Amino acid sequence: MLDHDKIGWAVEIACLLEISSEKPGNVTKRKDFNDSCFEDFVISAAAIGPAFRNAANVPVGETILRAVRDTRRLVGVNTNLGIVLLLAPLAKAAVLVPFGELRPAVSTVLKELTVEDARSAYEAIRLANPAGMGIVKQYDLQETNVKINLREAMIQARDRDAVAREYATDYEITFGIGLPSLRQILEQGVGISEAVVQAFLSILAQVPDSLITRKKGMEAANEVSGRAGRVLKHGGVFSEKGQKEIRKFDRALRVKGHALNPGTTADLVTAALFAYLVENDLPPLFKGRNVPAGNRPFVQGGRKQDAADPGGR
Question: Is 292 in contact with 110 (CB distance < 8 Å)?
Fold first, then answer.
């Protein structure tokens, strides 16, 4: 089992690895949005550490609300609501089981979510003020007298939002796509940043991004997923052609005010990173690399300022 400090470290490391990897269409070390930058996400990773170190001792909803409040205290935009919603049940589960058995514990945590968890989560969502949230009108986010538990609310939203779908399916995307992809890629000796990009593409190719769907519609989201699949067919980070296609894909996603930003996919890969770290007791990730010849990480162009993304992440 992980102690409280290790859970906090796993949360922070997962967030930092996600934002430090050059994922197409997202804020990265080299590319900002007008309303958010790389430093915002780094600060946000540190901001939520205290809430998650205490996750074992408090309800899931309380962890969500504290993490969002602490983020808003330090960062003026929504950088991590999806990440916080995903990581809170995972962190609660991490203290319940030995290494390598995280998903059954998550199932237990989800079944025990309460109405008060829902009220706290709704308050956190209102505070973060994201660009549309996939909660059905029956349980409007402005409603303060919530009468269903958090998992029930997420089940109602599962067809609209991939984060909600994780609550409804015991984290099917995290444990069925993201975590296996990370494991397989890292076992091939690829560096962690390249593994994150490849896992990100693997999730996106199979799961249309909820943020894109809310802003541009399902047709656009499906088109982006199809292109991610084609990038993988070219090898992704494993081939020179794949790296070239990743760069082209990145440029295409950054047009028209970042309306095609796959922000939910970035949140999901963060959850997979956290699960990998927890199930392997925070393994050293940079202890030498045996990257096959020709598998150099792709490099984006110089950092530049881009048009605003109206919804953030």
Answer: no
Domain boundaries, the chain: 4-283
Q: Two tokens at 173?
A: 């995307």
Q: Own/partner pairs for 112-115, CB < 8 Å, 24+ apart?
A: 113/60, 113/61, 113/89, 113/149, 113/150, 113/151, 113/167, 114/59, 114/61, 114/149, 114/150, 115/146, 115/147, 115/148, 115/149, 115/150
> What SS3 class is residue 304?
strand
Q: Determine which of 97-101, 258-262, 266-270 has the lowest per-residue pLDDT on average.
A: 97-101
Question: b/e map of 263-298 (b: 16 or more CB within 10 Å)?
Answer: bbbbbbbbbbbbbbbbbeeeeebeeeeeeeeebeeb
Count the neighbouring beta carbons within 10 Å of the beta carbon of residue 9. Answer: 17
Give pLDDT tens digits for 243-261: 999 999 999 998 877 779 9
| Nearest one of 162, 115, 113 to 134, comparing CA atoms | 162
DSSP designation for 57: G
Q: Minimal CA–CA distance to 176: which of 108, 109, 106?
A: 106
pLDDT, tens digit (0-9, with 9 covering 90-100), for 48-62: 999 999 999 999 999
- Taking the C-alpha atoms of residue 173 and residue 168, their distance in angstroms, rounded to an integer, is 11
CB atoms within 10 A of CB 195: 26
> What pLDDT was estimated at residue 85?
97
Provide CATH code, domain 4-283: 1.10.4200.10
- pLDDT the model gives residue 305: 34
> What does pTM read for this prediction?
0.88
